């Protein structure tokens, strides 16, 4: 296992595991991206987004480049931790956690996608609950936020089901066209009311040191 702490974090639930996005896991997942199974109709992501590339080889290349750039730009002021979602030993999607001046604001932002072959099985909810456990229980977040286009019923449904509250609207573009996004917010207090006791965290302390979070109260 590599000694780079963010790649060694594991979040395990009874159904899934979130594993740091190593090159080995990305190699297993890239066929899903190549086959266009990481997106949906209507278009779920705001611009710019490598997953919208029409050429499958270009799509995979730009997707990998974005992940590698994220690894190289982790600092205490801004970080994006990227995890591969593993179900029954198979990589089926990604779940990210983003911190922008996290030590100051305590706000963690989530982003995810799931293979079209695995949707409508409750995995999206399990992914979100797993990453929230890392944010709140592992890193001591004070709140979590996310957003999705108004017609992204799947993502908005997940946010609502795990306890987020609507937090206003914002305009964004997708594939060059404007669209309204719903913002969502989950406070630590609201998360504690739903906190699960069957989620296991591994590698968190070493990762916190990399993110400059060792002094935070968790």
UniProtKB/TrEMBL annotation:
Ranges of residues in domain N-acetyltransferase: 38-189
Signal peptide from the UniProt entry: none
One GO MF term attached to the UniProt entry: acyltransferase activity, transferring groups other than amino-acyl groups
Sections of the chain in a coiled coil: none
Keyword Transferase assigned: yes
One Pfam entry name: Acetyltransf_3
Keywords on record: Transferase
Name of the featured protein: RimJ/RimL family protein N-acetyltransferase
